[in-house]
């Protein structure tokens, strides 16, 4: 399997180089030259596999011979050994007024959020490749909340790796902030940026576009611009389908996906393109509704970021949207470049009526207000005692008229207890990874939203002696 850029400026590379490159050297995102097709017989065989065995099967065609299968199997086993549920991503059937719905619980990893599913694997993958092939890696990433802590926990203490994570100061939940800033390993560097998540994401991309700086400092990516992140997240779509259908390929399932950066829902889109019988993918956004507006109008237009009760989705520029554009535009890099040039120049891009029809075939979309989010948390709790995090509540509310839809439960509700308390008058009991966080010492730098300031900070930190 070889990988190319959505913008057409990268010669085909293998899996290892794609993972280590992160963002394409032309500024685009890496995608496979072709997607493997998963047939009915394969789907039936996969339906009863444990999560780890299924992950190995899904990953193998994308990895090819870049990593021996036995080594890949060990990486997968090690990555999910830290999860507190034996199924890794269990399905939870919850009764409600419409008869009940299924939640795909993605929060049983070490940081209690869905990002662990991909970042535990990516951290071990980085470690394996660096030990095998030599060299160092300096990871640079931006987070709106959960990516940062999951990435940090994926690589903390690992030799040959330093990690720098940017978060918008004051715009992540207190628990999310503490999950990052209480990790005091010498290779972990937290940076609070005086700005929004979009500012953080822009700074990261700016440094990656500086190819000389990127090469000199061996920069790598853990954000969902890294193809391995998307790939790992496709696994739980296959897993949920297998658990609910028993391998009956005549059954098509729908998913509601709370999303801000488009990575999680794009993983579902990828699984469907591979052959998984998915009927509907519902994009569930909060009031930062750029993706919902695009599905409704065909216009993707930047707006001001709104601070909401679901802060991990407080995003206007969704980095994985470019991958979807690539497929929507029939895998034509020049067409992708043209639309992205429009976005850069005017703050908006638009597709024609024919493409909009395809978009609406690919996705449903709904934007959910804070009031509706709180109402969903309250209604679900009063009906059955199940507590939703505000992001999961956005997905549940967006799909409220289609109760058979599987809602991706993206984080443990205790990570957002301010919203939970406002909705139901009590807090969600914290799981083990979240206990005593507020009593631990912290370490974090604070920077203005400037690529010059970020560049100087990285150079200063990397000039210090190891250990």
Describe, in plain words, how this protein is organized in 3D.
The structure is a single chain. The chain has a domain of 227 residues: 3-Layer(aba) Sandwich (Rossmann fold). The strands form 4 sheets. Strands 3-4-14-9-10-13 form a 6-stranded mixed sheet, sandwiched between helices. A 5-stranded parallel sheet has the order 8-5-6-7-15, sandwiched between helices. It has a two-stranded antiparallel ribbon with strand order 1-2. With 467 residues, the chain is of the alpha/beta class. The protein has 19 helices and 15 strands. The protein is 45% helix and 15% strand.
What is the share of helical residues?
A: 40-55%
Total DSSP helices: 19
Sequence stretches where pLDDT stays below 50 over 5 or more residues: none
Indicate the overall shape: globular
CATH class of the domain at 91-112 and 228-432: Alpha Beta
Largest sheet, spatial ordering of strands: 3-4-14-9-10-13
Strand content: 5-15%
- CATH level 3 topology of the domain at 91-112 and 228-432: Rossmann fold
How do the strands and helices of this protein lay out in sequence?
Elements: E1 3-5, H1 15-21, E2 30-32, H2 40-46, H3 51-63, H4 69-80, E3 91-94, E4 101-105, H5 115-133, E5 137-142, H6 146-155, E6 161-168, H7 174-181, E7 188-194, H8 197-209, H9 211-216, E8 219-220, H10 227-245, E9 253-258, H11 263-274, E10 278-285, H12 290-297, E11 299-301, H13 321-328, H14 333-346, E12 348-350, H15 353-362, E13 364-367, H16 370-384, H17 390-398, E14 406-409, H18 417-424, E15 445-448, H19 451-462
Parallel strand pairs: 4-14, 5-6, 5-8, 6-7, 7-15, 9-10, 9-14, 10-13
Antiparallel strand pairs: 1-2, 3-4, 11-12
